[in-house]
Each structure stands twice: as C-alpha cells, then as structure tokens.
C-alpha cells in the first residue's frame, strides 16, 4: 500500500459548517470521478498499528484537471477528535491519502442518470457532474436530488438547472418532499440511480426504489464490492423478513 503525503494548499469555507480542503497532487497520484480515498492526519501511522481515529473515508470532490485534490466535509461545533484536529489545520499542514478508488464512476449507457444525496454527499457527485458537463456522450440527461435541512446548499454554481446541458438540480429541506420526489423519479424504469449518504439513507432509498420496480443493477452505491455485497444481502434479508410477517 502506497501512502501519499501531501500538503493543504487552500481551505474553502463552502457554508458555515462545510469546508473543502484542497491538497497538492502528489507525483503519481491519479483518480477519476466518483472516487473516494482514505484521508489521514499526521501521526496516524506512528505506532505499531494505524490509529484509526485519525483516518476517515472521504470522497474526492474535484477532477484531476483542477490540479488539486478536494476533500469536502461537514465540521459541526461538537465533533469527533478527527474533525477537531482537522478544523485547526492550516494551509501548509501535512496530511496523507491512500487506498483511492471509484465505486461510482459515471456510466455512459445512453440512459437517464439520477443522483440522490443527503447534505455533503454532493461532494461525491460534483466531479461526476463536471465530467458530464465536459462530455455528455452516451448519457441522456442527469437529475440531481439533494436533501439538506440547513438550506445552505453546496456548490450552487454547479448544481444549477440548465436545459442546454440537460441537467436538473433539485434541493429539498425535508424528508417527506425528498421521498416523494424519489418516487416521481422512479417512474423512469430504465434509469440509473446513484445514492450517496449514510447506511440508513441508502436503505431507505433502496426500499422505495425497489418498491417502484427499480432493479438492483440500476442502483449505484459508494461501497467497495465486498462491502456492497454484504450490505445488499442484509437489506434483502430484511425485506424478506418483513414480507413474511
């Protein structure tokens, strides 16, 4: 496993609670849209075993041609040890990235693509949307639906409806409206549905989509293949149990 040590070159305050940490691109480091990485703070590997409290699984919110690795995250007033340390880092601080992979690259199968996210989950979708804007080949259109009760919506300059680009951006601030919109989108029985958020959020979306006739192969989740299989198995077993009651 190769660990890339790099430095923060810019800190962007996206909203009062969300920051993007822009990192220098280490030599040889590559990624694609929809990628995630392990983001670690100084000292995480100082002992015999890695200090997992100093490591987080984070999406990369930029594309390679932007020449910086963007890590976008929410930092609330009361937060974990990791977020507390991160909040106090400055430009020039050193961090590490490793085990980078994309579970949700943009599929170009001449279908409609639906991006379903909660809050800062938009960070995963930002590079996917930018990649689509650069080339819409074999993608019919993209519709983004995000729920964020803070109403401080992220990346408003990118997530803006554009008929010319065949892109629709929708923000809602409550779950009732959000899930009603998911049902509306599921009227497209041939679409591809990307879902990013907590496990609870994933399960709720999957249950609604499957009830609406969307098949498992149409669902794209930001999980590794082995974790995805276990996750799907547990969800389907729960559904079967509920159906037998």
From TrEMBL:
Residues 1-107 form the FAD-binding FR-type domain. GO terms for molecular function: oxidoreductase activity. SUPFAM superfamilies: Ferredoxin reductase-like, C-terminal NADP-linked domain, Riboflavin synthase domain-like. InterPro entries: FAD-bd_FR_type (IPR017927), FNR_nucleotide-bd (IPR039261), Riboflavin_synthase-like_b-brl (IPR017938). PROSITE patterns: FAD_FR. This is Ferredoxin--NADP+ reductase. It comes from Gracilibacillus ureilyticus.
